[in-house]
Amino acid sequence: MTAEDGKKRFTDVADTETLFRVIQSIPSPKAEPFKAWLAKVGYERIEETENPELSFDRAMKTYLQKGYSKEWINQRLKSIEVRKELTDEWQERGMQEGAEYAILTNEITRAWAGKSVKDYKAFKNLKKENLRDNMTNLELVLNMLAEATTAEISKKKLPTGLAENKKVAKQGGHIAGTARKGIEAKTGEPVITSKNAKNLLIEAKIKRLGKKNRR
């Protein structure tokens, strides 16, 4: 890797999974809290496999702890369900998880939002953060419309191969894109905004304080 002096030097690195395995192997009392947490998370994942509804319950609690509004959380959880239905359909059509899913998602996003996923994230000043966690309610709704429509078109047309699936993805995204343009024409405001999670959390906090003061 590139060092501070600009030269390439051999460096020990590890991804998240490897770091967790290293932590598990450390024979030190200081590592015990981390080991206990890893065991707890592993147990929760097993529970979620047996009862998928638990994953939604835990997601709800996590988003609430972060400070998101309940209205936003409901939309976000629904978007997870819609996304799962779409990826299940892609799997049926023979698409590979990873690169091909990313390509198709990019086609949908570009068609409805007028931006690629990369450009959309840059517009919201994001790096590795999840784009959907940084969408407004309206952005989430239109993204869900694009993905749900893509899934329905795919079920009817039964596309094969990446090229045909890309075509369907564009069609699904275009329908939501038309809705976006209609909303913008009526409101005079852009649907795609630079607001990210920081802005959403501040707005949610102000809203909660307003309700509390009215009481």
3D structure, described in words:
The chain is mainly α. The protein folds into two domains: 50 residues, no CATH class; 147 residues, no CATH class. Helices cover 72% and strands 0% of the residues. The chain has nine helices and no strands. Helix 4 runs parallel beside helix 7. The model has no long low-confidence stretch (mean pLDDT 92).
Could you outline the blueprint of secondary structure elements for this entry?
Blueprint: H1 16-25, H2 32-50, H3 53-66, H4 70-92, H5 99-113, H6 117-123, H7 137-157, H8 161-187, H9 197-214
Helix pairs in contact: 3-4, 4-7, 5-7, 5-8, 7-8
Cα-atom radius of gyration: 21 Å
Number of domains: 2
Mean pLDDT: 92
**DSSP E strands, number:** 0
- Give the termini distance in whole angstroms: 58 Å
Residue windows where pLDDT falls under 50 for at least 5 positions: none
* Total helical elements: 9
How would a crystallographer describe the biggest sheet? none
